[in-house]
Amino acid sequence: MANIKSAQKQARKAEKRRAINLDRKTSLKTAIKKLLVAIDKKESKDTLVALFNDAQAQLARAKSKGLIHANTAARKTSRLASRVAQINK
Questions:
Q1: Domain of residue 78, CATH code
Q2: 10 Å Cβ neighbour count for 89?
Q3: Which range marks the domain in which residue 73 is found?
Q4: How much is the pLDDT for 7?
Q5: What total number of domains does the chain contain?
């Protein structure tokens, strides 16, 4: 543990940020997995669109918070969109 008061505060802040980031990453992965499972089960179009919108929002939020790189968010969104589009044909 740090000895200097400001370093102790920074350590507390870093731990809080780590917990928040972990929670955000977990919810992002869950949203993506729900969509992929629904695609595999060939769910209805309405369900897929709703799950895709949720996953896309989670990706955009993670990108804006600096949790993932912008190109990573764009790539994942694009791949999910193409998979949803293939099902809806």
A1: 1.20.58.110
A2: 4
A3: 5-87
A4: 94
A5: 1
